[in-house]
Amino acid sequence: MMAIVGERSSCFKRVPLIERYRSFLPLSDSSPIVSLLEGFTPLVRVDRLASRISDKITLYVKFEGMNPTGSFKDRGMTMAISKAVEAGSKATICASTGNTAASAAAYSARAGLVCAVILPKGEVALGKVSQSMMHGAKVIAVDGNFDDALRIVLEITENYPITLVNSLNPFRIEGQKTGAFEICDDLGHPPMYHAIPVGNAGNITAYWAGYRAYHEAGVIDRLPIMLGFQAAGSAPIVEGRPIPNPQTIATAIRIGNPASWKQAEAARDESGGLIEKVTDEEITEAQKLLAATEGIFCEPASAASVAGVIKKASEGFFKTQCEVVCVLTGHGLKDPKRAIEICPPFIELPADTDAVAREMKLI
Ligand SMILES: Cc1ncc(COP(=O)(O)O)c(C=O)c1O
Fold this sequence. Notes:
With about 375 residues, this protein is α/β, with parallel strands linked by helices. The chain is built from 15 helices and ten strands. Strands 1-2-10-7-8-9 form a six-stranded mixed β-sheet, with helices on both faces. The chain has a four-stranded parallel β-sheet with strand order 5-4-3-6, sandwiched between helices. Helix 7 crosses helix 9 and helix 8 packs across helix 9. It is globular and about 70 Å long. The N and C termini lie far apart (about 45 Å). Pyridoxal-5'-phosphate (PLP) binds next to helix 4, helix 9 and helix 13.
């Protein structure tokens, strides 16, 4: 039936993410909610991609690039900023490889808070920097890596009345748990395997907490197996030691000393899963394959989850028919420079129909 103009349709009934999952979150009746209508991101079944990987898996991607600022960070940020407002905070700060900064800047603007973001100079994709700037944050690029930026931010928040909104802020993890709830709600059950990129390790910690919370509440009757993937040049958890000068084209996960290291290991061990590494080449191949076979454009760090599943499938890891969910943590438009670099150049021609038709081999 055609929608009637002015009629309330279901899209107008959309509620803020943390309102929907309020009973699983530390919110009181009087907690203010700062929302940009985040979450409820698509869980897309990707059969064409799956058929290129393994005949054993039914593959889904949770496209977190569809959040308001283009990454999963909005789930935790709606919670962290709501609680900051509840506590009477006037200012927020974070260290970031770009996405946390973009999200903190947007939600702080929405709440009328001052925001400062500390970035590793020259290592943040341009789309992300532009977001922080547009939202009016104070953007400071330090001559160091993410781990240096985080150290500075921790020292500042210890000494000044500014709210830390990195994933060390427990409300960030609380909010990010909702990703696991949505996957279970959409599938009607948990997946067998949950694949996820690992950087500072907040997200794997949050998803595992979310699955556990649903399990304890009896919403699901089993837990998934967690598969975490780090970039090969930035794989401290895999190597078992901090990496002083981490390297990878996946700048979002270029982190040498993850804040939630122990929690990530707990998620791995309690679920009977693994945390392994994938090379930049494998990440790039997965990013391109996903975009070209399924029409889904994620940023390089996000493709680490798909690259990991491809790698494990090629090793014969998936032995029986199973469901796998890959979290695509951020949108490909965050890093267009990298996308253009890895594709063949486009063709330039005069504005002439025959020239275009010839190029298309039509004549
Ligand atoms: C796009 C993207 N993917 C993955 C990650 C890694 O998440 P976490 O640091 O919670 O492990 C980040 C973190 O910034 C990110 O921005």
